[in-house]
Amino acid sequence: MAAAPILIAAGCGFRPVDVDVSFGPGKPADGAEMDLIKNMPPDNIGFILYDLERKSVVKIHNRSRAFIPASTTKVFTTVAAMNVLGPDYRFGTRISYRGSISGGTLKGDLYLKGTGDPLLTVADLMDMSDAMKKKGIASVSGRFYYDESDLASTVSIDGDMEPDVSFNPGVSALSLDYNSISAEWKRDRERGAMDIFLTPSLPINHAGLSAEKLRENITFAYQNRSGTESWFLSPDKDTDGIERLPVKKPALYTAYMFSTICGMRGIRLPRPEPGTEPGCARTIAYHESSELTDIADLTLTFSINLAAELMMLTTAKKITGEKMNLADSAKTISAYFSDRLESVSWRYFRIINGSGLTAKNRITPEQMVAVLAYADAQNYSGRKYRSCLPASGWEWSLMNRLNDPETAFHVWAKTGSINYALALAGYLYTKSSRSMAFAIFVNDIAKRERYDADPDRRSSASARRVNTWLKNSKTVMDHIVTGWITEL
């Protein structure tokens, strides 16, 4: 009996609609907008406002200048994924075996195979362990293999970032609960000791006390000690605390979590090791993810970096038939749009990952709006792309932005924010009921470069400078968008 198909194609036979997106000259920023941006260098901001029904550019400023897009990069990733894979696409995760089951023992090998489900949870692993129990398996005499071979893996999304940042985890076809763990520390003053522990605590991770005080606002230092992900708390922490930390080797982590859960159920598994599931393996349990449109919705609403990268890797593999790393997958996504939107200049466009977790991505306002207009013409199993985006004054990153009665629910857009780079891209409805696509970027590349070169960039002083810049830039951005809504 051959294994069930692990990748599920779009059940609706989705085919994207070709759209001719071209831009006329448009009206330059007027006095009101220029008054808002007069206190910043003019090259630090760029925007384009495009009327989707009249197919005309309404407002422009630096439309062809490349900016750091931050998390608005996820627009490109999710649109490509839904177009290429289809809105009904589901990821699969399977536990299977080769051998025979007799007297409570699996006499053979066990396989845990992932294909990139961005939302696989511990609860899903529990369901799989229940299936093992129902199958009558209490032990495995052979080996336990974890299979992440469908996609390229990496220990972090952005290698330039400090290793303790939880939203910069490893990426693998076999990922679990956003690939992050919890670290907690409690000082026992009677014993004069610090208790530090990880949840989950597994054979592949370790927590201890650092021999040296760490830099300001860095709580844990990371070391890879013979394959063990080791985290060391700065000794100056006097108050109890808890922090999320990233997982570096997600597939091994997922396999050990499955083994731990099976142990709770009285099922003994061998030590996990990497391997490839054979075609003759028989399925014990098969977990299907949510539909891709729902995954894209969550990714855009909560800006889930891991989900964006897994969608990009899977999409690029579907396009090329090859397993590629993040950078090469990003190039494939770039080519996908440049081939379909030929009337738009793709000069200066550059992405090296699909989440935007980098200061190296570059996108122009015109390129962003071209993709938004392209996505708006599609029908994703009865949903419009804009419905996957947060609504102003209501959801997550836009909950407390553009939330007065004149602007609430008038903007459906993806936010983007990294230090000295702010972005907002999506759709808006004006007071006169015009439907628009827009992109607005505010960057200070010079300050970002100085920030990256500063060894104390995590200091409180640096954080205050960044927060002041972001607050001021967000105010300018939101006033511009408010003017578009209320005056057009």
Distance between the termini: 63 Å
Derived from helix and strand composition plus strand pairing, the structural class reads alpha/beta
Count of separate structural domains: 3
| Annotated CATH topology of the largest domain | Beta-lactamase
CATH superfamily of the largest domain: DD-peptidase/beta-lactamase superfamily
Explain what you see.
There is one protein chain. This protein is an alpha/beta fold. The chain has three domains: 27-88 and 291-487, 3-Layer(aba) Sandwich (Beta-lactamase), CATH 3.40.710; 92-152 and 251-288, D-Ala-D-Ala carboxypeptidase C, peptidase S13 (D-tyrosyl-trna(Tyr) Deacylase, Chain: A, 3-Layer(bba) Sandwich), CATH 3.50.80.20; 177-246, no CATH class. It has ten helices and 18 strands. The strands form four sheets. Strands 1-3-2-18-17-16 form a six-stranded mixed sheet, with helices on both faces. Helix 2 (73-85) packs antiparallel against helix 5 (292-302), helix 2 packs across helix 6 (305-320) and helix 3 (122-134) crosses helix 4. The longest helix is centred in the last third of the chain and has 28 residues, at 460-487. It starts with 26 loop residues before the first strand and ends with a helix. Mean pLDDT is 94; it is low at 1-11.
